Amino acid sequence: MSYETSIYAVGKDPVVRFASEELAKYLGKMTGIRHTVETAESSLPEGAICLGTKEDIEKLGFKVLKFGNESEDAIALKTLGDKLLIVGSNPRSALFAAYRYLELLGANWL
Known about the structure:
Number of strands: 5
CATH architecture: 2-Layer Sandwich
Order of helices and strands: EHEEHEEH
Low-confidence stretches: none
CATH topology: Chitobiase, domain 2
């Protein structure tokens, strides 16, 4: 049996897209489940994994933790209902958040 799930990149920033692709690639290696990357529009399906900046995630109607200055790196990993939000204060932080989530799941980087 073959499974496939999606990672939703929120916004159009290329760094956020890259972070989503990295997350999909390494989740696939860890689980054996193929993860595709899609662009989040106005609504998300049940069980969605969303990755983006605080500003873009909030445009979808999700409230995230209050961050300081956008130029400072901050991340949040948060569940809201059945959705997982992987959030950075800026695009670079969104990439950091993706790697942090993978580390929490047991990924090791050399």
